[in-house]
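Researcher: We're teaching a course module on how sequence relates to structure. For the next exercise, students receive a sequence and then see the predicted structure as tokens, so they can try to spot secondary structure elements on their own. Here is the exercise chain.
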Amino acid sequence: MAEELWHSLGHSDSVHQQAWPQADPSALVVDEIALVIQIMGKTRGTIQVPAQADKQMLEQYARESELAQKYIAGKDIKKVIVVPGKLVNFVVE
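Model: And here is the predicted structure for the students to work with:
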């Protein structure tokens, strides 16, 4: 059946003599990740950030996001916990 379908697609040679598809390693690289924003350990949402961002950049993206601003505006931030590639947690008073 595979041979018949292959010929119906317009190929004249055998499907069994074709090369296997080659994997493209660059297609497996992620450009952006979903960074979880937590306030006092409770998940408040996610934002899209570059996958190659370091801890400082992740904290900056999280602080500047509208999502975090809604919860930390006017509050004193005691501690910021950053887990690269996963989440940013703000501990506030």
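Model: If you want an answer key for the exercise: Strands lie at 32-39, 42-50, 77-83, 87-92. The chain has three helices and four strands.
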